[in-house]
Specification:
With 168 residues, the protein is an alpha+beta fold. The termini are far apart. It holds the Pfam family DUF6878.
């Protein structure tokens, strides 16, 4: 039984709602958000990679770091096949980002550099929301043109402790 996949539906509980209904809703919602993310990534790859190839850009990297409720994405860095830095062209590209519900796609047109930054930020927020909270996280997002892959290397930070007790 699926009422809807909208997040608000997860909270619509009546006297006839069972735990199985809620589990179904959660499973369907997660499947829908996964599908929306995959669709968004596919759309953005078809917009970004041809523009990078046309500019002879082989790779783009974006480093990020956050903690204590603040985070920062460094500006995208472009490199040629010999790993030499390049400037981004003024090319405009249309990408999509996901809305707050992680289901709604919004199309935006940006200069290539800004489109990459926006797509990377949306990917990071969708897959690791809250990466800047508490101990935070850091990582590297890489757009590899030859393989047409976007790699997100994410490192979450955490505090750990070891307890021992000894009676004398």
């Amino acid at each position: 039984m699926t009422d809807t996949i909208h997040p608000a539906a997860l909270l619509q509980i009546t006297s006839t709602t069972t735990s199985a209904h809620i589990a179904d809703r959660v499973v369907n919602f997660l499947a829908a958000t996964d599908a929306a993310l995959e669709s968004t990534i596919a759309f953005n790859k078809t917009a970004i990679f041809p523009a990078l190839a046309a500019a002879s850009i082989a790779c783009v990297t974006i480093e990020y770091d956050g903690g204590g409720d603040e985070g920062n994405l460094e500006p995208p860095q472009a490199f040629d096949a010999d790993n030499q830095p390049l400037e981004f062209p003024d090319t405009k590209v249309a990408i999509v980002t996901l809305g707050f519900d992680n289901l709604t796609q919004n199309e935006e047109t940006h200069a290539l550099r800004d489109a990459i930054e926006s797509a990377a930020c949306a990917l990071l927020e969708t897959t690791h929301g809250g990466w800047e909270d508490n101990e935070g996280a850091c990582g590297l997002i890489t757009f590899a043109v030859a393989s047409q892959t976007i790699t997100l290397e994410h490192r979450s930070r955490f505090v750990d402790y070891d307890t021992s007790e000894r009676a004398f």
